[in-house]
């Protein structure tokens, strides 16, 4: 069973290694084991024992970038040891990268590539990875990522910013839900206060993706073994994946590791002999808790199981991101200057712009093509205009003369007009001069609201034109400006024409006119409402008890009060004339205001907006046909940021498609 599992390890790991090689880790979190620990925790020695290759060693921050270690067991036991090293970035590989024929050369290459990354990074530190691939008959099938050791204080000549950089890198890896944290913990320190375990607990509160490696058991102080036993048995600082204790190779074995792989085997034999003969660790029954060999088995099993568990979500994410990226690429369009189809592209842009400008002005937002743009509030021109028309209606209605009190402005105006026009008129006769004079003054108050809606209509046209240009010509700033300028140049003269026509509409209203039937209907309606109101007030004011329920007396009292109201309202005297004039003014004002609002709004749509739309279609086509080649090149010069985005999305699609092909070839469809 163990042999069967071993045969399945490499193909499973290869899938993730290939996905990482094409750059998918920049888009999706991939399953990985990340080695973390303090600078003095024995982290490099653990990696060296697992990989069988030397790692840079020394004091301070030795690892200055992530190191991705891909170990493969050679299928042919007679195959020679081989390795190669490179930098995972989108630049050309340095001359120092490439294959290494022995371990000394490999170590030199790792150090030189680390120096290159340090020189190009900030504070001698880089987030780019060095990729080390090793194939050997003694190598395990395993992939690990080594991170710089935790930094607490900056050394002499070292910027304090490196502390934040290292912490940020460690946090970015450990917080990923697909990262298995290999926490290296030295036994010769107080395990309860080890920083890496605290960091792991913050990133992995449930402890389900953290495995601990206990190092330096030979340096445990007298009486400290019992604490180490509690940890290895998962009683203290428990982790779901548990702990494995290792004893790093001796100094002699470390020095001879580059000359022969036999020293690795010898070192591991010494390690197991140490644990077997140890008075505290030796009696423990579970021998799988000790030694580098067991650590390798545990890590391989954990990583393979983790990969199998997360592959379905990776497939789903690749499919989703690939689809979204292709949609974005379509939205960004292509650069016509690269295809030589520049003028045709300009004509199409112009036609699309005019098409959706007209659609927007008519309130036709449901067309599938261009729906994304039309759905944006700034380009819903018809809706925005309807809102302005509602404001016009509200402003005019607020000016309706109510004549609620005799000292109100409109009442005073009407009374003064009646007095100033008093001549030889017979009592009870209607004075047309007074009526016309008052209506002229009331209607003139509409002018400000009319000019406001006219100005607002021009503003809506400008705003919608500019936003539409930004949406449909988003890649071409010069074309956006040209289209907007065309609309501005067209809207200016049309605005002046519309202003003159609006003045004429208002001027017509200054000469009162309507059919008698309509006016009489409104007059009677006002009178009926007034009578209903006063009747209700009179009835409510009568107390039947005051008349002992005498119906005749109650009816007489009602008649008396209604009679008094009628004489005040319709009597042949100055008060009666005033009330009749108020009724006529209000009736005609209601008719004229509705007519005025409808005519102005209709004129804004047909005489202003529709005219701009029609002339735009003509001018835009003419502009596209007659512009010179130099002007054409300037108009269709693409925005630098858009070009950058297109290049980025093309590269992203390339990565995602390569990942999809890898998964597909592994019989995992991501169609």
Q: Note the main sheet.
A: 9 strands, mixed
Give the beta-strand count. Answer: 9
Largest sheet strand order: 4-3-5-2-6-1-7-8-9
Content-based structural category: alpha/beta
**Total of helices:** 22
* Helix content range: 55-70%
How does the overall form come out from the CA principal axes?
elongated
What quaternary form is this?
single chain
- Give the end-to-end Cα distance, rounded to a whole number of Å: 34 Å
Mean pLDDT equals 82
| Integer-rounded radius of gyration | 44 Å
Portion of residues in beta strands equals: 5-15%
Segments where pLDDT lies below 50 for 5+ residues?
none
How would you sum up this structure in a few lines?
With about 675 residues, the protein is of the alpha/beta class. It has helices spanning about 1-20, 45-50, 105-120, 160-175, 195-205, 225-230, 250-255, 260-275, 290-330, 335-340, 340-360, 370-375, 380-395, 410-420, 430-445, 445-470, 475-510, 515-540, 550-570, 575-625, 630-635, 640-665, and strands at about 30-35, 65-75, 80-90, 100, 130-135, 140-145, 180-185, 210-215, 245.
């Amino acid at each position: 069973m163990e042999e069967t599992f071993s045969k399945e390890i490499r193909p499973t790991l290869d899938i993730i290694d290939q996905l990482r090689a094409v750059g998918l880790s920049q888009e999706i979190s991939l399953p990985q084991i990340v080695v973390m620990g303090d600078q003095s925790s024995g982290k490099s020695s653990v990696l060296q024992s697992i990989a069988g290759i030397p790692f840079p060693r020394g004091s301070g921050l030795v690892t200055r970038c992530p190191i991705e270690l891909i170990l493969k067991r050679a299928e042919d036991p007679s195959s020679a040891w081989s390795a190669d090293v490179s930098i995972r970035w989108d630049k050309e590989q340095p001359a120092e990268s490439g294959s290494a024929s022995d371990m000394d050369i490999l170590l030199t290459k790792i150090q030189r590539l680390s120096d290159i990354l340090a020189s190009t990074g900030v504070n001698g530190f880089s987030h780019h990875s060095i990729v080390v691939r090793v194939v050997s008959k003694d190598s395990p099938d395993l992939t690990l990522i080594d991170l710089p050791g935790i930094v607490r204080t900056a050394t002499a000549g070292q910027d304090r910013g490196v502390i934040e950089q290292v912490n940020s890198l460690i946090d970015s890896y450990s917080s990923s839900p697909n990262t298995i944290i290999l926490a290296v913990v030295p036994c010769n320190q107080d395990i309860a206060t080890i920083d890496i375990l605290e960091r792991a607990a913050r990133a992995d509160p449930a402890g389900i993706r953290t495995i601990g490696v206990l190092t330096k058991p030979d340096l445990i102080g007298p009486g400290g073994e019992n604490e180490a036993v509690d940890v290895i048995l998962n009683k203290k600082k428990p982790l779901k994946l548990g702990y494995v204790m290792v004893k790093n190779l001796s100094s002699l074995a470390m020095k001879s590791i580059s000359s022969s792989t036999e020293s690795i085997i010898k070192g591991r034999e010494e390690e197991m002999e140490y644990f077997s003969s140890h008075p505290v660790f030796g009696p423990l029954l579970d021998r799988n808790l000790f030694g580098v060999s067991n650590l390798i088995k545990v890590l391989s099993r954990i990583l393979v199981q983790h990969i199998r568990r997360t592959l379905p979500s990776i497939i789903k994410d690749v499919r989703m991101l690939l689809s979204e990226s292709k949609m974005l690429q379509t939205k960004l369009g292509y650069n016509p200057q690269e295809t030589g189809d520049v003028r045709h592209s300009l004509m199409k842009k112009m036609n699309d712009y005019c098409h959706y400008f007209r659609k927007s002005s008519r309130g036709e937002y449901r067309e599938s093509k261009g729906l994304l743009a039309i759905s944006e509030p700034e380009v819903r021109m018809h809706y925005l205009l309807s809102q302005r028309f509602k404001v016009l209606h509200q402003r005019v209605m607020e000016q309706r003369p109510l004549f609620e009190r005799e000292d109100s402005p409109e009442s005073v105006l009407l009374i003064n007009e009646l007095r100033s026009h008093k001549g030889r008129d017979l009592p009870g006769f209607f004075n047309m001069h007074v009526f016309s004079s008052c209506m002229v003054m009331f209607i003139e108050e509409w002018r400000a609201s009319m000019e406001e809606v006219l100005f607002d209509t021009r503003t809506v046209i400008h705003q919608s034109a500019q936003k539409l240009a930004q949406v449909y010509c988003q890649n071409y700033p010069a074309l956006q400006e040209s289209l907007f300028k065309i609309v501005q140049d067209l809207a200016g003269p049309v605005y002046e024409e519309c202003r003159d026509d609006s003045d004429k509409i208002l001027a017509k209203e200054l000469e009162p006119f309507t059919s008698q039937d309509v006016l009489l209907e409104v007059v009677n309606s006002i009178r009926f409402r007034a009578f209903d109101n006063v009747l209700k007030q009179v009835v409510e004011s009568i107390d039947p008890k005051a008349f002992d329920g005498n119906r005749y007396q109650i009816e007489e009292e009602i008649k008396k009060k209604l009679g008094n109201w009628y004489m005040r309202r319709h009597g042949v005297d100055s008060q009666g004339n005033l009330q009749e004039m108020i009724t006529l003014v209000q009736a005609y004002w209601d008719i004229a205001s509705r007519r005025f609002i409808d005519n102005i709004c209709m004129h804004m749509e047909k005489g202003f907006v529709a005219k701009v739309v029609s002339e735009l279609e003509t001018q835009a086509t003419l502009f596209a046909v007659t512009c010179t080649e130099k002007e054409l090149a300037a108009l269709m010069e693409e925005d630098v940021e858009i070009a950058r985005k297109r290049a980025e999305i093309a590269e992203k699609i390339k990565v995602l498609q390569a990942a999809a092909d890898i998964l597909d070839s592994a019989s995992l469809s991501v169609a």
